[in-house]
User: What shape does this take?
Amino acid sequence: MFRKVLIASVVGVMLTGTLVATSANAASVSNGVPCPSANKTTKIAGGTYKCAKNPTVKNAKLTWVSMDCLNADTAYVKTNKSYLLLAGQMPATLAALDEKIAAEVDNAALKAIDAAALDVKVATWNQKLTEFTAARDAMVADSANATKNRKSITTYNTAITSLKTAIRSATSSAANYRKVGKTVDNMKTTRANAVLNLAQAKDGVAQALSMRALVCQKGL
Assistant: This one.
């Protein structure tokens, strides 16, 4: 009986020691805990850790650092690099767009004048078209003088055709002139989008930095 109790006690001590050792091992691996050698990795229930320098710690020494932390740092570095590149290019990009916009604004003003002038011509031609069409139709209806009016009818038909062609051409040109104004709007939209993209890139850097700080905290 005594022997059974002794064996049970020994087994209990061994199990307790094993549990304590396991818990101690898990507790010894977390962000900020000293580690044996650079680049050594270990896995615990919470994830994978690497013996490295924590990117959020100034003058850091080798400690266990979670792979989540290291991956977050890689993402931050990449995001920040892209932002800095975009920010460096932005002044030249905006200057070029502003120059084009200014030139296009001047061009749009001139084209608007041209379009208005064509509108006046089209209005005049439409009035002539109405008059010529009415005069021709009257001659066509005058069957008693069909022979006498034949030449005049032909002349009117030629004039009517020419007017219609001119009206179509002028209307199309005026519409194209007015599209220059839309080009200015498109350029302004492009500029606004460039500024927005830079702001979003900056926000992305802040988010990546916050994520890195979160997962690189000591003790995680």
About this structure: The domain at 74-215 is CATH 1.10.287 (Helix Hairpins). Helices lie at 2-27, 67-141, 146-215.
